[in-house]
Amino acid sequence: WFLHLHTTEWTKCSKSCGGGVKTRQVECKQVMAQNHVVSRPESQCPSNKPQDRRPCNTKHCANEDLNPAIAVANVTYIQYNASRKKVNLKIGGQAQVFYGTQVKIKCPVRKFNRTRIQWAKDHKVIGNSKKYRISKKGALRIADVTYIDSGVYTCIAGRSSADVALTVKPRPGVFPSSEEIERQHHNQLDPAMQPNGEMPGRPFLGGGDDMSHEVRP
């Protein structure tokens, strides 16, 4: 009777180009009498576990643009309806949303594998977590934003990138603590932004809260 790590065949590469992954199963097996094989917990097998995933087809796709054009929306969005639970934005410009809102930021790009889009907050790359989720189409979802989620979000597609500046504001009738106010102060979108959502000398147009972005002339 002996224990050993059994490996299956590698799967096909998940992508034909642009960077994919091959995987295989690594299982702890024990050979019993009459060559009967049973599965055992992995902790009972040797610690030098073989690799169960590896990169493949890492060359860029022939039709993939390394400098794709990102459709940037250079506008300002301001959320007025505090009862709205979700807000959809496009990359570019600025946005103000209420505390606790779920935010989705789209990054429209052509001739680029959108599963390879990356995101960064304040120049630090972010990945999937309880707070952030990057969809297969490259959109970023931020769950239940808080004041520390204010900042500059960057969509990265190949060598191209675009930003949107996000500010999280208190819900009506809710007063943040002094610590939260200080944190909010350091994450302001634009020091020239007025409390009523207008830029000095530039009246704000289109107050419909169901728009992805509200257009500033």
Describe this structure in words.
This is Ig-like domain-containing protein. Residues 68-165 form the Ig-like domain. The chain has 217 residues and is mainly beta. It folds into two domains: 2-60, TSP-1 type 1 repeat, CATH 2.20.100; 76-169, Immunoglobulin-like, CATH 2.60.40. It is 4% helix and 33% strand. The chain is built from one helix and 15 strands, in the order βββββββββββββββα. The strands form four sheets. Strands 6-8-15-14-10-11 form a six-stranded mixed beta sheet, with no helix packed on it. Strands 7-9-13-12 form a four-stranded mixed beta sheet, with no helix packed on it. A three-stranded antiparallel beta sheet has the order 1-3-4, with no helix packed on it. The longest helix is centred in the C-terminal third of the chain and has 8 residues, at 178-185. The protein starts with a strand and ends in a 32-residue tail after the last helix.
